[in-house]
């Protein structure tokens, strides 16, 4: 079951990115019927073996991070930074990187030759660091790598974020998103209510937002709880006003969490009921509009880690660029996790 969850997380993250990227520049809600029509078109990918949708920077960076973790068996900041930088400079234009992250890669490569790994990110935006969602959009491999070790998860989520995003909201966003994936890996459908899931995230944010200028995640998580508990489902416009769906980590991470929790609470729109649970989460998250590829990929990573890959349509493996890579990296991260557990139990046997 755990392998299915690892693969589900990586594949649904890919799907959310590839599908969401179609609507990224619209900056308005996406109609359910538009998404259902796209899904219908994807079905032909299996017959023609034609990759129909490209992934963007979200997946590119997540896969580079995963490769580094797999190759090294640990987090090596310099290797992650050089992998991010090399792929960035080789990227086709349709990866659509964030507008300012190029500065970081140029400084990492040219100015410091990877000797100062965290300096360039901390110089962004007059020394504030970026609060963009780029730190959280790529973090799910950290959750898979650290499964079962929350302390390590928070440490690596922060380190991986700080290579490009030094603002506290971007760092906390990466920790929150990785933790949501970890809670999803550690629980199953029927074993946890939406409110229990929400409470675990709130407990984490209460701990993280002690010494911050503004408790952005605390406020947004409280609002999410209120919106889900409400009798009438909030309109996307109200959600946009109250929580947001933009390029800030605090908005996109909370939008992804909201979409997942709405489905866990069985409040997903009836128009999507013909789809599997994971598909419902991915499509519902994209329907919110805004930064759709990044909200889609983060909601997908959580939903896939929760429901596993069984509910994913087989044509998803053919429809998206990078699907084999996603499955392969998830399998390798799972193997690492199994090995770590074997090593721990052997050590315990020797000690007893
Ligand atoms: N002050 C003012 N504006 C800021 C600040 C700040 N401290 N931090 C971020 N912004 P960036 P990303 C604004 O460039 O997070 C792609 O589509 C500023 O307008 O670091 O890596 C990805 O797929 C800045 O350009 O990019 C993601 O969805 C923007 O936030 C998305 O872009 C994004 O920060 C974000 O990528
Ligand atoms: Mg993107």
UniProtKB/TrEMBL annotation:
Pfam families (alphabetical): ADP_ribosyl_GH
Recorded superkingdom: Eukaryota
Enzyme class: hydrolase
EC number of the protein: 3.2.1.143
Keyword Hydrolase found: yes
Catalysed reaction, written as an equation: alpha-NAD(+) + H2O = ADP-D-ribose + nicotinamide + H(+)
SUPFAM superfamilies linked to this entry: ADP-ribosylglycohydrolase (SSF101478)
Keywords attached to this entry: Hydrolase
Matching InterPro entries: ADP-ribosylglycohydrolase, Ribosyl_crysJ1, Ribosyl_crysJ1_sf
Gene3D superfamilies cross-referenced by the UniProt entry: ADP-ribosylation/Crystallin J1
Similarity remark: Belongs to the ADP-ribosylglycohydrolase family.
Protein known as: ADP-ribosylhydrolase ARH3
Organism: Clavelina lepadiformis
